[in-house]
Each structure stands twice: as C-alpha cells, then as structure tokens.
Amino acid sequence: MARIAVIGAGMGAMAAAARLAVAGHRVTVYERASTYGGALGSVERDGFAFDTGPGLLHLPAVWRDLFLKTGKEPLERCVELVQVDPSSRHVFADGTAVSLPNASRAGVVSALDSALGTGAGERWGDFLGRARDAWDRSRRPLLEEPLWPDWRTLERDPYPAPRQRRLLRTRQASTLAEVAAWELVDDRLAALLESYALAYGLDPRRAPASAALLPYLEQTFGSWYVVGGLRELARAVYERCLARRVAFSFGSEVVSVVEKDGRAVGIELAGGTVVEADHVVAGVPVGPLISGEPWPDGQVRPRRGAGGEPLPGRFTVLMALRGARPPRTAHRTVVHAPHDGAEAGAVFGGRLAEWPTVTVLRPDDARLRPDGASEAVTLSATVPGHGGPLDWSDPELRERCAATLVERAEAAFADDGTASGGGPGGTGTGTASGGTGAIRKRLLWRETLTPLESGPLTAPALAGAGGSHLLPSNTTRIPGLYAVGGLAHPGGGLAHAGMSGALVAGLIVEGADFRGSQ
Asked: Is 276 exposed, middle or buried (0-12, 13-18, 19+ CB in 10 A)?
C-alpha cells in the first residue's frame, strides 16, 4: 500500500484518486479551495442554480468506465443522464437557423440540407467521414495511452484532407480554417466548424486540421445533460472517492513538492507542514511546485498563446429570468458571429469581439429554478485571457462584455412564444443581431464570471502542426511526480480529464508495463 498525495480536487485528480484507492493505495487529496470539482462549480441564488463550467457532457463512456471500475453502482444510478435532442440549435449571421439532432449523422446531413440548401449536408457529411478517419488513427495515442516517448510521430496531421488545386499548385488543408474554407465552402458551415475550436480556446487559423475531431466526437457520441447540472457529476465522483476511503483535506494549499535523492517524497503545505508520500499526483500546474523545468529536454511543453500571451478564457453571464421556459425550446443555441475572421482576430489579438459567438444554455430542469414561472439561462463566449491586454477585474469591461453577450443572445429568444421560423426548436430564419428585447424584459438579475475567476480554457491534445497542440506527459522528470487534468496529456474537456486520471492511475499501479486504458 503506497501513500499517495493528490494536489487539487478537480475532475481528473478525483478520477485518479478513486482508481488508485481501489487498487489498494492510501490516497489523500489536498485542495486549497473549500470544495471539490475544479471547473465544475455552481452558483446558487434566490432559488436559481447555474453551472459555472461546461453545461453538457460528451463521451460519457469515460465516466461510466470510472464508476464501473471503482464500485458496484454504475454512473446512471448516481446521476440522471438525459440525451439532449436536438443536440444544438444554430443561428447564423444571415438569420438562417438549423437544429441538429443528437448523435445522428444522417439526421444532421438532412437538417443542414433543409436549412442551408441542397449539398450543404453532403459536404458536412463527407467532412465528418474524414474526421472519423482521423479519430480512428489518433484515438489510442491521443486519448487512451500515455504520451509516447517518440511523440514526434504525432507531429503529422492524421486528418486526410483532399488534395485541391490552389494558387496554381496542389495543396491540402493544414489548418481548421482552411478545412472550413476549402472543403465546406458555405460560410455558415465554416462558422459552425470554427465555433468548436473557439469554444476550446483554439485559434481556427492555427489549429491543425485534426481539430475536425471536435465536432465529430460530439455529433457521433452525442450530447448529454446531467439533471441538476454538471455539478452533480462532480458530487457523484466525490462521493465515489469517499466510498473508496479517499481522504480530502480542503483549505490546504500545497506550495511545493518535496524532493529527496531525485525523487518526489511528499508535499509541503502553506504554513510549513510537510506530508510524506510515495507518489505525488498534481492536478494543478506543476512548474510552480518544483525547482527547474518539470519535463525533460525534448519533451512537450505546456501550451501557451502564439506570442506568449495568456490563453483565452470563457466569459459567462448567469441570468435569472421571470416567465416560464417556452415548450420546444432548444437546450443549447449557438448564435454565430459572421464568418469574416473578425472574432478570431479579436480573441487572439487581446480585444473584445464586437460580435462574438454566444452559446445560450436553457436547460429544462426544475432543480435549477425556484418555480415554473422562471428560467435559469447561461450565456458564454470565448474572450482573451486575463493578464494580457485586458484586465478582467475592471468593472466597466465586465459590464460592457456582458451587455454585448446579452444583445447577441437575443437571437436565441426571437421565437419565444411565436410559431414563426419553425418555433424555438425549428429550422426557420430569424435574426442573429438580436434586438427583440426579450431578455431585458424578463431579466430579474444577472451575474458574470470572467477568465479572472475561471482561468484559461484547456483544449484536448491534437496531432499535427508540428506537435504544438500536444500536452505534456503525465510523467515528469522527477520520478514519483505525475501530472493529471486539463493541463496534461490528453488535454482539456471533461472526457479527456477523466482519461488523464485513468492514465495516471495506470502508470502508478502498473508502472513500465502500462500500455494504456482499455
């Protein structure tokens, strides 16, 4: 039985803790905050409740596997999972709207043909076919296995872009923006594709073509909602840890990893207390906890902005509205910016976009509202990170950004109470520029969260682009010290964080014999 200290109580760290405890180890989690869950936080006020992190779950099989491997109760007995259908509604800058069904490629193709014109669905379907090939080629090394020692083989993009005649020579798309422009042709399809990259804080102009995996995973494996909010998933994982006798120490800030004879042998807490451990698992940035570089020469380094600037973050508006949620309202509506490069230019240039892409979440969940005559709604958009040109502690900046999101989100409410445009879940047309005033008329109060509070967005590891979108290995240059969560392989997102927990547990339990999660 080894003594294992886990730093941080985020989802990846708790996933590792539960698996290690089941393997017979004595595990203690040290968290500087007063609660668990990391990005899966919540805000409650006046009977309203909101998720402060992701609002939908993708690849739930990762979490099903965790519950299967760590106890008798499956995931579905610990939380209530509901498939979201339609998976999403999209309102484009020209007013066109389309609702995409959940986990149905044929349904998505048909919906796009109906809303955007014949041929649009076929182009998107062909694109998804190529994205599937990229998934088949990269699923094991980029999700289910530790980062290969010869990781440079992942510098090559697995996306099979068709060869096209461009500027008097034959070329293949190498970035997601080129895939959008050359293969999808339609600006609305391009906006749809690039919105997936922006949601993870990726610049579509620089993200490799293999970022095509992002829409493929969602549209193939589906979108799921956890009744009560995704905070309920964090609660279930925390309770599973407790059932496996994982100990938690909240309000405990770890300031350094203790090293002896070149190996991690414990942690030091604020105040000077030293806790001995045989292994240390860090669910927080490793660099500040040790002296020197965390990873050996030639290893992948943590991802940074192109010019060293902070990574983008998420701006969120939590809105308490009077009035019931109309029937047939889509759970998620994405109001797209024009496909002219202005949004990416602003986000990755350290400016607020005049017209951001806004995601509107309107869950039909009685547990999130005080009564049937009210609605809890969340708006979010990708914005420049804190610490660069923008200072998110500035109240005027926060208010200006919130007002912009509310104005753009009005397009998601344009059909409330009407039958025009096919209804809230339909495929008709409206306006993406807002202006109906529906939100302002119903607003009771709102709160905002910025990158200052929520930190940077973390993206999944992607092959291609010379390896610039890979994440550091779960092992470090210091034996006994491991990295877990969205800042380590296989990267950000709930599914990838859960897999990082499985990988770290496998590396500790099986050592050099570990070949990946099954």
From this structure: exposed
Beta bridge partners of 475: 482
Residue 298, pLDDT above cutoff 80? no
Cα–chain-centroid distance for residue 336? 18
If you average pLDDT over residues 280-301, what whole number do you get? Answer: 85
Does 54 sit behind a cis peptide bond, omega within 30 degrees of 0 on the bond before it?
no
Report H helices in 319-367: 342-347
My answer on whether omega of the bond before 86 falls inside 30° of 0, hence cis, is yes
Burial class (CB in 10 A: 0-12, 13-18, 19+), 1: exposed
Distance CA 446, CA 98 (A): 28
d(C-alpha 116, C-alpha 70), whole Å: 46
Sole residue written with tokens 């500040």: 288
Contact 83, 103 (CB under 8 A): yes
Which pairing describes strands 169-171 and 164-166: parallel, antiparallel, or unpaired? antiparallel
Which among 215, 208, 199 has a CA at the least distance from the CA of 125?
Answer: 215
Q: How many other C-beta atoms can be found within 10 angstroms of the C-beta atom of residue 272?
A: 7
Q: Distance between CA 5 and CA 266 in Å, rounded?
A: 7
Three-class DSSP category at 138: helix
| Sign of the dihedral through C-alpha 20, 22, 28, 31 | positive
User: Using CA atoms, how far apart are residues 74 and 392, in angstroms rounded to an integer?
Assistant: 41
User: How far, in Å, CA of 363 to CA of 375, rounded?
Assistant: 9
**Distance (Å, rounded) from C-alpha 345 to C-alpha 348?**
6
Direct distance between the N- and C-terminal alpha carbons of the chain, in angstroms, rounded to an integer: 24
Helices (H), 117-245: 120-139, 176-179, 187-199, 213-221, 231-243
Reduce the DSSP state of residue 234 to 3 states and report it.
Answer: helix
CB atoms within 10 A of CB 205: 16
User: Residue 377 in contact with residue 415, Cβ under 8 Å?
Assistant: no
What does the DSSP 8-state code read for residue 175? Answer: B
Q: What tokens does 335 get? A: 């109001």
Query: Which carries the bigger pLDDT value, residue 80 or residue 423?
Result: 80
- CA dist list (Å): 391 to 358, 404, 486: 21, 17, 24
For residues 81 and 70, give the distance between their C-alpha atoms in angstroms, rounded to a whole number.
Answer: 19
Q: What is the pLDDT of residue 299?
A: 73
Report the SS3 class of residue 249. strand
Tell me which residue has tokens 């990873």: 295
Alpha helices in 246-341 (DSSP H): none
**370 contacts 322 by C-beta, under 8 angstroms:** no
Q: What is the pLDDT of residues 72-130, one digit of tens each?
A: 899 999 999 999 999 999 999 999 999 999 999 999 999 999 999 999 999 999 999 99
Amino acid identity at 470: L
pLDDT in tens, 307-335: 667 899 999 999 999 999 999 999 999 99
The residue with tokens 């968290």 is 31
